[in-house]
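yo

u said u wanted the structure for the complex thing, so here. seqs first:
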Amino acid sequence: MRTFFYCIGQGLANTRRNILFSIASVATVSACIFLFCMFFSIIANVRSIVYTAETTVGITVFFDESADDAAKESVKQAIMDRGGVKKIVYTSAEEAWEEFKTEYFGEDAEELSEAYADDNPLADSDSYEIFLNDIEDQEAMAEYIAGLPGVRQVNYANTVVSVLKSLNKVVSILSIVIIGVLVAVSVFLISNTISVAAAFRKRENEIMRLIGATDFMIRAPFVVEGLLIGLLGALIPLAAVYYIYGRVMEYFTAWLSGLGTGFELMGLVPLDIIFPYLAGCGLLFGAGIGFIVSFFTIRKHLRV
Amino acid sequence: MIILENVSKTYQTGVRAVKDLNLMVEDGEFVFITGKSGSGKSTLFRLLTRELKPTEGSIMVNDFDLDSIRRRQIPRFRRSIGVVFQDFRLLNDRNVYENVAFAQRVIGASPNEIKSNVPRMLQLTGLSHKYKNMPYELSGGEQQRVAIARALVNQPRIILADEPTGNLDETNTMEIMKLLEDINRMGTTVIVITHSMSMLESMKKRVISMEKGRIVSDTGSERKNKGAGAAAGTESTSGSRAGVIRRRRRSI
Ligand SMILES: Nc1ncnc2c1ncn2[C@@H]1O[C@H](COP(=O)(O)OP(=O)(O)OP(=O)(O)O)[C@@H](O)[C@H]1O
Ligand SMILES: [Mg+2]
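structre next:
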């Protein structure tokens, strides 16, 4: 315990002594973790949105006016035969009209729709809504269905989803590259900081060794310094991310609800769900890089 | 107890600094090592502190076999010896008290031990009134006494000093020598490397002279040769050797 506090004290002293290098190291670790949090947030949200879309938006199939129940049934059969279908829902023209009314006229649905009372504008708009196991399959499925006899029109929300998916890929690759570079810079800077500290304490370390200090005693202050750099480099961006994420979510939620009903539940990940992951990863990464880099740097420097 | 058998040290540069050295120093002795510049005194010193490993031969110090000692055991060995250098090697960012306490801290001594040991050492070395001074506020002699206090505070069995008075004037030299003699009288083995002929003559201690890496004379040689012969001999002597160490070991 005494030894522990002594090492912490010496570690702090080290950090204070070469404050500039320490700050530079903290800054790059911070940048790393901040970018990681940002990319992680984007990817998590996009994935969540895609997932929500996949489970709530399907392919809608409308029939030829001439199509009778048997024809519709055979379309269903053909779709099922192709495979990969999670769920298929039949919506009659009346149901479609009710849904449309509440969605577009809201509270005043009954009044406003008086005008159309006896004349369902969505007649012949009975449809199948098809949910697939794999969203990637949607385009092929839509094409396939369009080719079936008795089908008038096929709608599907593919474009948004595929754009989101490719966006996620780009963000993933970008984040790996940028974070990779930053990790390298962090490693370099922490290693340099520790080297400078070691040079600074060279004399002291030599004396310590001759007095009979253990390797642990000699190295610990440097590892403590590395850990401090890493942890500080994690805490700063995490605090920033906590604040920024909350703000961005507020903004997006407001914006989405302005787009109309249905959008508010588009699948954004709330702060209190994502933050524990960010904090965990950030702290682990910060502490890990600080510990490992300083440990190996000092081992190299103080080898007898 | 120090026993060297057929010790040679060749540096990577090819310089043979120590050649086929046989030497035995018993617990409680006071020994001077002298010789011209480059004769291998400091090399011998660094062999004894295990900063260097011998190229050939074996070295026993305080029951530690420095050839086969494990890396992890070296700190424990080093705590059984105290080292003093010509250039004092104090920490210039700490005061006298902290310089001495440092030696205790790095071996994980308790605050209570530190609080009782450090003032005792400062008193022994006559520095009680200067405990708050920084090293650069002290004379060379005083600085060396701080270094001796630091070497002594962990209660080593041997004090090794490489030209401890090399940077000091006559008066300070005599004071340091008197201090080392006092320490020796309290039971600690003292080994001092020196150039000072006047000191050798006035102190009347065992003197080992080196030349080109070899021992060319040893005023304690008659007694010692017998000892070294026994040490090189049968296994049974190692038992009695350990007994001698145990009997002679006293704390300061
Ligand atoms: N680290 C080293 N690498 C190579 N050669 C060395 C090293 N240290 C000492 N030597 C050589 O070993 C020989 C003995 O040196 P050593 O320092 O032991 O002498 P010394 O008796 O202590 O001399 P001085 O009285 O000047 O301190 C010298 O020739 C020196 O040049
Ligand atoms: Mg020398």
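DSSP finds ten helices and four strands in chain A. The radius of gyration of chain A is 30 Å.
cya
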